[in-house]
């Protein structure tokens, strides 16, 4: 091997070191989990599992702690730095993409469940898993809670809690109709991420509309966003070790791995096949048809985010890694990534939507029920709403699954029929969720490139007026544009502070 070849290999290794280490963490975690399972005859206690998972839990807690400041600061900074017409176009293109891909995922899930029939000719007890506590919920209440959480009465409380309707059966008589049960309301300990996103979008729009009047607020938000991204870049280097212990502990914790190829095998293969087909065939085709871009390159550049999503099983926790991959590796303009990716991590859940639709029909087949066309439409609509309501946290889709079951008249307790394999399916659908966000961001960046270039020139003109310099603007590749834009914004901020003097 020549010296030039060695240098190229070393350069490639350095640029992809974190991705390689994260993938190694996934492999080592899986191998260690299997070895530890086979090292004893009896099951591992929950205390032992917690000890093994401790390092992974710390990593997950740090990532989740970054979610709120990351989403709020990046959204406000991105929207505030854009002209309203530009952010409006990005929102329209992104919204159309989200509707198309979510609808495609749900239709694919329904078609697979109806044609393969994974639950046909099986006894419902075959798929039963461990007993779990299921919250009674109605479709209407869940949809209304989703809207209520978009507009929280207390934004400080929204950082740690979200609103939830509780339905309890009356104690004095037996009433089978859940819509006649007693209603109450409570705040549960879970970040109201959709409310925070709505507030951040509104704040960013206000800054953008005020322009010069809000320049100091905009500068503060930009600087805060840079600080959070710097901290995030440090935390991301913990991914390999964190993912290793998370996967190892999960493999030890599962009671019976044989269930994947046994009683729930056909259901598992059906859902997994649909998720992978959607994420790595349909979505790449949409990308190629829409902007004629090679999807293989995007998948390669998202390698670290894919490994992190599989390890953490949380699209929100993976958000910092997704942003880094799309900006540093794929070269997408920071104004696009920090506008769309936080929104996508909140409402664009293709993998979850497909899973909800397939699982609901599978459970109805286990029950021996034949769904009418109207009920299938109800599954599609509620699966869409449920995927939006899924909070981007591990196994959130299992919670919102109750809403889909209610739409076709199945009891909430039927969720226990699929919980045995949900832990693994959740990791694959999280991967597809974050890949869907990445494909959408690339498409929006392509269609908004002219407007982004125009606003970038306007920002440079502002810099020229403040600094008296002449800056030539030439066409650059997207990565250079993003880097140049950030550098120029930083220089402009220095001018505002009086750090730079006119030449």
From TrEMBL:
InterPro entries: DAACS (IPR050746), Na-dicarboxylate_symporter (IPR001991), Na:dicarbo_symporter_sf (IPR036458). It is found in: Membrane. It is a multi-pass membrane protein. Keywords: Membrane, Symport, Transmembrane, Transmembrane helix, Transport. Residues 486-503 have a biased composition (Basic and acidic residues). Residues 472-503 are annotated as: Disordered. Pfam families: SDF (PF00375). The chain crosses the membrane at residues 66-84, 96-116, 191-210, 231-252, 264-291, 371-393. GO terms for molecular function: glutamate:sodium symporter activity; L-glutamate transmembrane transporter activity; neutral L-amino acid transmembrane transporter activity. The keyword Cytoplasm does not apply. GO terms for cellular component: plasma membrane. Belongs to the dicarboxylate/amino acid:cation symporter (DAACS) (TC 2.A.23) family. This is Amino acid transporter. It comes from Pseudolycoriella hygida. The lineage of its organism: Eukaryota, Metazoa, Ecdysozoa, Arthropoda, Hexapoda.
């Amino acid at each position: 091997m020549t010296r030039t070849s060695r240098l190229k290999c070393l350069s490639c290794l350095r640029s992809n070191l974190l991705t390689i280490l994260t993938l190694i963490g996934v492999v080592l975690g899986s191998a260690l989990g299997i070895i530890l399972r086979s090292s004893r005859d009896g099951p591992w206690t929950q205390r032992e599992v917690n000890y093994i998972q401790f390092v992974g839990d710390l990593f997950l807690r740090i990532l989740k702690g970054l979610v709120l400041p990351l989403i709020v600061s990046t959204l406000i900074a991105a929207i505030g730095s854009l002209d309203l017409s530009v952010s409006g176009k990005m929102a329209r293109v992104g919204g159309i993409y989200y509707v198309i891909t979510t609808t495609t995922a749900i239709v694919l899930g329904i078609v697979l469940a109806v044609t393969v029939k994974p639950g046909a000719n099986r006894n419902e007890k075959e798929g039963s898993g461990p007993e779990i506590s299921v919250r009674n919920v109605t479709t209407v209440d869940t949809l209304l809670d989703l809207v209520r959480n978009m507009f929280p009465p207390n934004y400080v409380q929204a950082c740690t809690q979200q609103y939830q309707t509780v339905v309890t059966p009356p104690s004095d008589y037996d009433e089978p109709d859940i819509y006649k049960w007693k209603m109450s309301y409570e705040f549960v300990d879970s970040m109201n991420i959709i409310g925070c996103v709505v507030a951040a979008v509104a704040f960013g729009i206000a800054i953008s509309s005020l322009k010069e009047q809000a320049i100091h607020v905009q500068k503060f938000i930009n600087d805060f966003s840079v600080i959070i991204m710097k901290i995030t870049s440090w935390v991301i280097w913990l991914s390999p070790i964190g993912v290793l212990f998370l996967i190892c502990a999960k493999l030890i914790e599962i009671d019976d791995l044989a269930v994947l190829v046994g009683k729930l095998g056909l259901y598992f293969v059906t859902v997994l096949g649909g998720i992978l087909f959607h994420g790595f065939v349909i979505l790449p085709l949409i990308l190629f048809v829409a902007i004629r871009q090679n999807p293989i390159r995007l998948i390669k550049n998202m390698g670290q985010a894919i490994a992190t999503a599989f390890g953490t099983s949380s699209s929100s926790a993976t958000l910092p890694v997704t942003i880094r991959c799309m900006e540093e590796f794929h070269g997408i303009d920071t104004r696009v990534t920090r506008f769309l990716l936080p929104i996508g991590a909140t409402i664009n859940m293709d993998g979850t939507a497909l899973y909800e639709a397939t699982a609901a029909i599978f459970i109805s087949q286990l029950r021996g029920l034949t769904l009418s066309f109207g009920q299938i439409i109800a599954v599609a609509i509620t699966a869409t709403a449920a995927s939006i309501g899924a909070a981007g946290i591990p196994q959130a889709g299992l919670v919102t699954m109750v809403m889909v079951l209610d739409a076709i008249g199945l009891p909430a307790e039927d969720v226990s029929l699929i919980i045995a394999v949900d832990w693994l399916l959740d990791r694959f659908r999280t991967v597809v969720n974050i890949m869907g966000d990445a494909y959408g961001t690339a498409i929006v960046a392509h269609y908004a490139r002219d407007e982004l270039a125009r606003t970038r020139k306007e920002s440079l003109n502002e810099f020229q007026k403040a600094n008296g310099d002449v800056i030539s603007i030439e066409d650059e590749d997207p990565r250079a544009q993003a880097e140049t834009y950030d550098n120029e914004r930083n220089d402009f901020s220095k001018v505002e502070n009086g750090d730079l003097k006119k030449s």
